[in-house]
Amino acid sequence: SVRELIADRTIWRREARVGLRTLPYVGSKVTVLGLLIGLQCTMLSTMCFVLLPMWGEYGYSWFWLSLTASLTGWIGMALGLLISASLASSEAAVGTLPLVLIPQITFSGLIVKVKEMGWLAKLLSYGMIVRYSFEAVIKTGERLTEPLVGGQQERAAKPLSGVLYNLGFKATAAVDDMGLPYPALMTILAGILVMLLFLTLVQTWRTREGN
Fold first, then answer.
1. Tens digits of residue pLDDT in 166-183
2. 116 is in which domain, residue-wise?
3. What is the model's pTM?
4. C-alpha dist (Å) from residue 44 to 38, 53, 69, 98, 126
5. 27-32 long-range contacts, Cβ below 8 Å, gap at least 24?
6. For residue 67, what pLDDT is reported?
7. Which of 60, 73, 113, 151 has its CA 20 to 30 A from that of 16?
């Protein structure tokens, strides 16, 4: 999606002069890309759900896992479209990707636990989309495996409360403290998606006359 609007910009400007509106144009891109991404994320979630396996003692829900993965994919699509609407060339758009993606991975808790980050890194992690997606994916289940003490090759399924504390996604070790609830995480992600799509609409509208 990062090159989608740039590639069609000349056509978009010509069509805009004869009455094509911004919302239907961007909406057509979002619909096609959104369906493809939703299908890809659902297939990936299904593979993980079946092959790992994630049901049984882990208690994961295929539906919520797929929905969370798809919502994350749609946010990535919207971010790519916003970059595409904001920059003038495909080269600039592609070159921007590492600057956007590397912080998302680094400060999300995927590589370094949020609990083990310095105060500045922790602060930055709250602005990372993937942090909320990672936490939401974890909370679609009931248990998660962690390495046993003294043996990295041996793993045991543990309740989410302890895992979330070890990762730094909640402030206390209390069993009843689960940090942000799953609905709140999904609301945050949905809000980010809406915001990115709105900004994409604004930027696309600005380019209709060559601005």
1. 776 776 666 666 778 889
2. 4-209
3. 0.86
4. 10, 13, 9, 23, 26
5. 29/1, 29/4, 29/5, 29/81, 30/77, 30/78, 30/81, 30/197
6. 96
7. 73
- CA separation for the pair 69, 37 (Å, rounded): 10
103: Cβ contacts below 8 Å, ≥ 6 apart:
124, 128
Encoded tokens for 42: 């659902």
Mean pLDDT (10-residue bins), the chain, 211 residues: 85 86 93 96 94 80 94 96 89 88 86 83 89 89 66 61 72 70 93 96 84 54
Taking the alpha carbons at both ends of the chain, their separation in whole angstroms is: 21
If one counts the domains in the chain, the total is: 1
The closest of 165, 168, 143, 147 to 156, measured between CA atoms, is 147
